[in-house]
# Entry
Amino acid sequence: MDRILYLHEEFCAVAEDGRLTEYLPVRPEDAAGQILTGKVDRIMSGLEAAFVDIGRKKDGFLPLRENSQSFQGPALRSGDRILVQIRKEETGNKGAYLTRDLSIPGKYLILMPMNRHIGVSARITDEQVRQRLRALGQRLAGEESGLVLREAAAERPETELAAELEELRAQWRELQAGKSLRTGPAEELLRDYEPRGIRQVIRGEELPPDLLRQLKEARNRQIQLPHGGNIVIDRCEALTVIDVNSASDPGDGNRRETVLRTNLEACREIAVQVRLRNLSGILILDLIDMDEAEDRERVIEELREAFRRDRQKTVIHGYTSLGLMEITRKRSRATWQEQQCT
# Structure
C-alpha cells in the first residue's frame, strides 16, 4: 500500500496507490471528537434528552440514556456542568450530537473512562485473536475504565499497549482538571493511519495536478468506470442511492461476465467515492441484476474488501428483498455538500 498524507492549513488528504481517498477541509468549527465542558441548559423528559450549552449558537443535543450498558454517570439536573464529547458536528438547524460516554482514542487503544466495557475491533474476525485481545484488555484496564482494542493492537506487544494506555489516562486526568481535548483532521489522520502504514507525510503543499483532477471529478454526480460503465450518486435527506450502469461497456458477448465485471469495478469505485465524499448513514446500491448466487456473493466479498481501508465503521448488510445492496456507514464530520450549505 503506497499511502501518502497531505497536511495543509486549509485541508488534509489521503492518497492510496495514486487514488485520492480522503479530503477533509480544515474549518475552525470542525469539532467531531472534541471533549469539552458544557452546562445543562434544560432537560426535556419527553425527548429523554438534555440540551447543553457548549459555547455555540445552538445548544448540543445529549440523550439521557447512553448506548453502553456499563456507562457510569450521575443523573443530570439543569445547571450541571458536565464533560461531553461531540459525536456528530452540528448541521443545518440541528446542534451538535453529544455523549457523556467519553472515548479517548490512541493508535492501538480507545480509553472509555466512564464505563467498564472491554471491546475488540469488529475488523478482527478471528475468534481466537478476539478472545486473546479481550483478555488482554481486561488485564490492562482492571476495574478503572473501559477499553477497546483497535485492529492494529493485534500485532503489538503488551508493554507497548500498556504504555499507550498510561498516556491516554494522563489525557483523562487533564480533562478532569478542566482542559479540553481537541483533535483536528491532521491529528485524526496521523493517529488512524500510522499503525496501517504511511509512506510519506507532505506538509504545507498543494495537491498535485492528478489528485486535484480526482477531487474535481468527485463533485460530479456520475463517475465513469474503466470499461465504459458508470455509477450515479444521488444524495437524499435520509439516504444515499448509488446506481450502477453498464452504459457503453460493450462486453465480449458474454452477458454474465460483462455484468459481473461492471459490478466488481463499481464496488471498488464506490468504496473510493464514499470515503472521498464522506458519505454516511444508509447507502443503497442498485447493482446490475445478476442471475447466479455465486456472482452475488463475489460482489459482497469485493465490497467488504474494498471498504477494509475505510477508517469509519462500515457495515455491508447484503441484499434487500428487492435485490438492492444495503450498507451503513458511521457519520462523524459533515459532507462537502453540507459544508457548502452552511
About this structure: The first strand starts at residue 3 and ends at 7.
